[in-house]
Structures are given as structure tokens and as C-alpha cells.
Specification:
Length: about 70
Amino acid sequence: LVSEKGNQTCGLAGVLEAGQMLRIWAMAEDAGMGGYNCEFGTNIWNNSDPDPAALYDAQGNLVDRY
């Protein structure tokens, strides 16, 4: 998972089947909120300009963008 504007990477592993969802939290302070936590010290997604999160598979192919 990559924050395209800042080029920060959150390494994920495993398989999501079609239709499944996984909530991703960027900041370490959000640990315990459920889902997966990337454990960054600051927010990696920009809230004032578009900053898509791009999900890639193990081969580097773009799977989805949010």
C-alpha cells in the first residue's frame, strides 16, 4: 500500500478475496482500532490535496486505488 503523494509505503501481506475489506490505519497512535496499523509517527495521507492510496500485488501490479 503506497501513499502516492508522499511515496510512503505500508507493507502488507496476505490475501484479500474479491469483495473483502481491510481497514488500514496509518498512525501508530491508532493501534487497537481494529484492522491493520502501518505504525507511522505522523499521518501519511494528505487531507488538503488529493493523495491516493494505491494497493499493489506481490508482482507490483496495481490492484486498486482509493
